Amino acid sequence: MRNDRTVGDDLPYTLNREAGNASKSLTEESASPGNDILSSIRRNPLALGGLIVLVMLVLIAVIGQIATTWMPALDPATVRLVDTLRPPLHVVSDLVAAEDRPLFGHYLLGSDHLGRCILARMLQGTPIALLIGFVAVGIAIGIGVLIGGAAGYFGDRRIGPITLDTLLMRFTDIMLCFPTFFLILTVIALVSPSIWNIMIVIGLTSWMGTARLVRGELLTLRERDFVTAAHALGIGKWRILIVHCLPNTLGPVLVTATIAISGAILTESALSFLGFGVQPPFATWGSILADSKNYIFDAPWLFFIPGLAIFAVVLAFNLVGEGLHDAFNPHASGPRGKIK
Amino acid sequence: MIRRILYLFWQRIALLFVISLIGHAVIHLAPGEPSEVDPFNPMMKAADIEKIRGAFHLDEPLWKQYILWMRDLSRGDLRSFKDGQPVLSKIWQRFLNSLPLFIVSTLLVWTISFPIGIHAALSRGSPVDRISNLIAWALISIPGFVLAYLLILGIVENIGVPVIGMRTFGNDGAPWWFSIIDLMWHITPISLMMAVLGIATLSRYTRSQMLDVIEADYIRTARAKGLDESTVIYRHALRNALLPFITMFGLMVPGLVGGSVIIESIFAWPGLGRLAYEAILSRDYPIILTVNLLGAVLTLIGISISDILYAVADPRIRHRSS
After folding, report:
1. Model confidence pLDDT, tens digit, residues A77-98
2. How many Cβ pairs within 8 Å bridge chains A and B?
3. Torsion of CA A325, A326, A332, A334, to 10 degrees
4. CB of A162 less than 8 A from some CB of B
5. CA distance A124 to B47
6. Which of A41, A248, A296, B57 is deepest in the core (most CB within 10 A)?
7. What domains can you pick out in chain B, each with its CATH number?
8. What is the pLDDT of residues A93-102, one digit of tens each?
9. How far, in Å, CA of A112 to CA of B165, rounded?
10. Is residue A312 within 8 Å of residue A53, measured between CB atoms?
11. pTM of the model
12. Which residues numbered 268-297 in A keep a CB inside 8 Å of some CB on B?
């Protein structure tokens, strides 16, 4: 699958390229597929930028979770009615009680219509944004690999008059016909809106792409020589599927997963914006945005801060996804060109 | 050929039946009922709730509710839970409001994304290509409602034109040309917002399609024949790169329902998406179910149109199927 340039390959163009990349020695570079992917991302400034943003985001999420739970200065639920709609870096009023004062005595990112510190609320929302992205996409990928794997590898089995492949793929087609966002909105509005319900519903309605992708990959992998060889060695079907075939679908699945995470974060923010998100007083980026829409002329920072945060994170996931795609398909013509 | 079309038609009708079954089951099995919209209203006695449930057939078993829904829908006398209006005429009215938005935004998508994508593909790796790639990703990544609010802020603060709703309130006696300009002021921002995502994805798609085609052997042959570059690009490459757009056209048709919920709510446009949103808020099952079904019908119509267009445009597919 990968181009098999080995350590001993001393073609001049290889040396030139590696030398321009003064980061690691030649022997460590391209020693394994993982390193190859990493070095490809390192050569792509946009993907590298996205990756740095994501690493920072994870750090912020961890720090935020700890700080908002244990530091009273960063308690997102502290209401200070004397200091409503303050702009960023505004000094706290003297009327605020000592134990209610925000971090460093300033509203570093401003305060909202109840005088709550936006910095604290944004920090509280950071782990939620990541959690929703990862869990929802985890569910979607799980279902997708299961259905796609069954259809692609055991598709010949018959259930009554039709094959398993026909059955599963028709079901996938049916799910693709639903207007997705409308369905998510309906179900979330009917069941009680909690983080877990949102994750589950987004996951249950977005696995179809992965299923088709995995099925397509498995249909070609099944005919490859190494699978025939594994059969000849007497290895069981399940072992061939799990140990030999599925790891080969990892690349494309990882690319779709990365881009799907950004989609899940956008969907959650849209749900929160319409009022169906995580319920107050708990803050997510989407709900901070939703609160801010009534004060957009008086306090535009309330709108710009969470909007920019969502934009930056989603863009970072998308750029990393594109970088991964280019890394897995070195000969692909364009970003996301072959993945559908 | 005809036999194949008929076969596909029947297959899709069967698909539609299963979709309506699943949609009905999902919406009815989810907890929460129309009778529970206002649970703390002291005027609602248990007997009243029973009466409402009986009037809406909510106390019947699920399969019977499905049959009743289908019967009323096919006779055209399905009525909304909320105001007792016939569902079909309500949806048709809103559909007519959404249609101009869909047409304008589709035109915007096609006219803007094609030149950008082709230009980016022809100048691959140049600063223009990189910048348009980054802008496309940025437009994909920004939440639609954030962009919509930014646009409203910009228009209202700098130009001072009211853009919310379908027409400015209170200018009924205005001359006809004023009404037309007014309508255009209202329709442009919202269709632009609906087009943004399409422009970004389609221009990237055009780019990758064009790159695929440019590297094909027959393009090399055309160049080797000594044809000039514009003939190679526009006669040989572009025609083949355009084929997959027929698929994209089919995929855009269902955007009439699903893609407009948030944007129509923000701009207070009385279209289909907003009708659906209002129905969800009041748990108006007949409208939710019918709009959901309409979404599926539009998806299937879109797929069918693109199948037929494909067969018309691409002789390889026509010959394989017959």
Report:
1. 777 777 777 777 777 776 666 6
2. 131
3. 90
4. no
5. 45
6. A41
7. 91-276 (1.10.3720.10)
8. 766 666 666 6
9. 28
10. yes
11. 0.82
12. 269-270, 273-274, 289, 293, 296-297
